[in-house]
């Protein structure tokens, strides 16, 4: 257990931030899964879902929830999958 008041406050802050970050990461994961599924099934909503996914990924990186390279990697993989499905 933390000894000082500032240490106790820091524990509360980190728990709150962890909860917030987890919520955003979960949202991104579910959006990416939906997008991948739509792309695989050649659904009409795939392009709309892709735009939404990319927007959420950018927001998360901007707020510091995910790192810049993680953002770039996720976006690149989604774009690549989408473009391959358009060709086929």
Structural description of this entry:
The protein is an all-alpha fold and 88 residues long. The protein has a domain at 31-88. It is built from three helices and no strands. It has helices at residues 5-40, 46-62, 68-87. Helix 1 (5-40) packs antiparallel against helix 2 (46-62) and helix 1 runs parallel beside helix 3.
Please outline the major beta sheet. none
The end-to-end distance, rounded to whole angstroms, is: 58 Å
The arrangement of helices and strands along the chain is HHH
State which percent range the strand residues make up: under 5%
Annotation field: number of helices:
3
Mean pLDDT: 95
Choose one word for the global shape: elongated
Helix content percent band: over 70%
Radius of gyration: 17 Å
The parts where pLDDT drops under 50 for at least 5 residues are none
Overall SS class: mainly alpha
Number of strands: 0
